[in-house]
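Side project, low priority. Logging it here so it doesn't get lost.
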Amino acid sequence: MIQNDECSTATVTPVNPTIACDQTASGSLVGATASPQSNTCGGTDDDDIWFQFTATSTQHLISLTNIIGSTTDLYHVLYTGSCGNLTQLYCSDANDSTASNLTIGQVYYIRVYSYTSITGQTSTFNVCIGT
């Protein structure tokens, strides 16, 4: 099993002080499995992995960069709350999204998965949180 295959083991992702992606967290869908948390977004979340960040601003840019592998069509979902009680804030099929109305100091969770339902995806990428 990969380290961040479930919300409870989400990879802590650094928050950059600007929109420059000087610091990122790496991700891989190789071996990822479905998580039990609810999801009303498109795509098939059968290969999701998790990231978390602590808001340093009321607005952050979330970017998936350097995507390579079997598919480059990734989805990401932003949640607030705790892993046992998440509230979905939004979905994004685009590789960049703007998270607004955030609470400074609060932890947010990002679920990333491939859009396709074909198993065995080999996609790797970086997650950047910009300010």
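Brief comment: The mean pLDDT is 96.
Revisit when time allows.
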